[in-house]
Amino acid sequence: MHKRLIASVAVSALICLFISGAYAGEKNPVVMFDQGHGQKFLIEKEGDLQLSKLAALFKDEGYRVKSGTSLITDESMQGVSVLVISGAFAPLTSAEVDALMRFLGAGGRLCIMLHIPQPYAGLMSRLQIFASNGVILEREHLINDQPKDFFVVNLDKHPITEGIRKIGVHGGWALISDGRQGKIIARTGSRAWIDLNRDGKFNGTDAEQSFGVAVTGSYGKGRYIIFGDDAIFQNRFLETENMAFGRNLVKWLRES
Prior knowledge:
This protein has 5 helices and 15 strands.
């Protein structure tokens, strides 16, 4: 029993060594885009809603970029410094959530972008972050007069928001942080609302307030950021303000 315990501890320490060794001091860190959870918007494609321009930003910053289509495990995360999960449609399993928490705890960087929130529910609850059950409808700073498309101008001071006056959101979910580690760094105006009863009009049963659209925080030695919208960094919308925002994001994910 004693020998088995020592062996188990040694294996766990070795896994942590492999994981933690990927983060600090690498000249060319690896960013992996998860594409194993039903994603339709990919880094290898050039269309309007694809992510090839975001992948290019990582390359410009010196990252080695790859995609992953298998389950997220300790083994699949070896050598990875940053994991991006954007636009997932299939849920993360409990085992994958556990692996991601170990990845973060050992110093990994995690970037999540929601198309729908359900696939991330298990992971987000572990981070004490929760998403709304409806998309945000704005009344201010609209893009093309569409309530689901708007600029976010309420930005907290943070390396990701440095020099940024506004970011464009195109169908985003509200984010709430219940933990001390998670901090909202971008939020809507106070008159934004969510159609909770799905009747297509604002009434007394709906929520009206300032909603978070980006939350950043730390867990163990790692850090994460969650966006309530995956369109922010899609090719079509990754320009002007969103492009500058993306560059800041990529740099922040690399910082020690």
